[in-house]
Design a protein that fits this description.
It is built from five helices and eight strands. The protein has about 250 residues and is of the alpha/beta class. Strands 3-2-1-4-5-6-7-8 form an eight-stranded mixed beta sheet, sandwiched between helices. The radius of gyration is 17 Å and the shape is globular. About 35% of the residues are buried.
Length: about 250
């Protein structure tokens, strides 16, 4: 079977991506902090390889085993929501989210690139928050923007140094994943279905032929349960403050 390494796939969209990949005969190699917690991963795909990885720990990132078998896909999914004015954000939370969203994954990818020299398909799950203007989400939006910009530029290196490599950036809107919003509960009835998004991601990956692709997946407004998402291809320019209030979540 073809293998896919999933960075942050113990719950939510990451776990749905692992399950959908397994349905397509893509063997998942799951890295996540919840690995080893019997209450955390109750429905991992049969035959999945699991590795405990704490992206906040430099030792964990540098010592976790890397796959011995060839890896066709690397999916960068790890993330957690944060909403608070920066001046009211605890410094430990700044470090936590910076490690989780950016520094830890970049160190892991650095190790992986040195470990395997073959071309592969990198799939970065970002967020529309990388270009949306949000209120009290400067840290979260800034880190998602950094993730997207990093991936775009890494795509240039991969296309040059590993002929046949491909990169996809998928920026979804709000997902119906209660654990993602557990620190700020809200009505998720109109949010995107993670299983649907996982199917769309794998379909898009399978049909991609060029070295780079960027996709925006947004909820229609007003959000209606069961409504198809709005799909746009290509990057979006960042929104700017023009005197009006920031737009609501998508």
């Amino acid at each position: 079977m073809t293998s896919a390494l999933l960075l942050g796939a113990t719950k939510g969209l990451g776990l749905e991506l692992a399950r959908e990949g397994a349905r397509r005969q893509i063997s998942p190699i799951i890295y996540g902090r919840s690995v080893g917690n019997p209450n955390a991963i109750t429905e991992a795909p049969h035959g999945a390889t699991l590795h405990r990885l704490d992206l906040q720990s430099r030792d964990s990132v540098m010592q976790v085993p890397l796959p011995d078998q060839p890896v066709a896909y690397v999916l960068w999914i790890a993330g957690a929501f944060h909403k608070a004015p920066l001046e009211h954000t605890d410094p430990d939370d700044i470090d936590l989210h910076t490690d989780l969203h950016f520094r830890g994954p970049v160190h892991f990818l650095h190790r992986f690139l040195r470990h395997r020299l073959e071309p592969f398909h990198l799939v970065t799950i970002g967020s529309v928050s990388s270009w949306r203007l949000r209120e009290d989400e400067a840290l979260y939006c800034g880190l998602k923007a950094a993730q997207t910009a990093f991936t775009r530029n890494l795509a240039v290196e991969l296309a040059r140094d590993r002929p046949g490599a491909r990169v996809t950036v998928v920026n979804p809107g709000g997902l119906n994943v209660p654990t993602f919003w557990e620190k700020m509960p809200q009505d998720l009835s109109g949010f995107l279905d993670p299983a649907m998004v996982a199917r769309f991601v794998w379909d898009s990956v399978a049909e991609q032929r060029g070295p780079y692709r960027e996709i925006q997946i947004m909820r229609p407004k007003p959000a209606v349960v069961g409504s198809p998402p709005l799909i746009e291809y290509g990057p979006r320019c960042p929104e700017v403050l023009d005197g009006a209030a920031p737009r609501g979540s998508v």
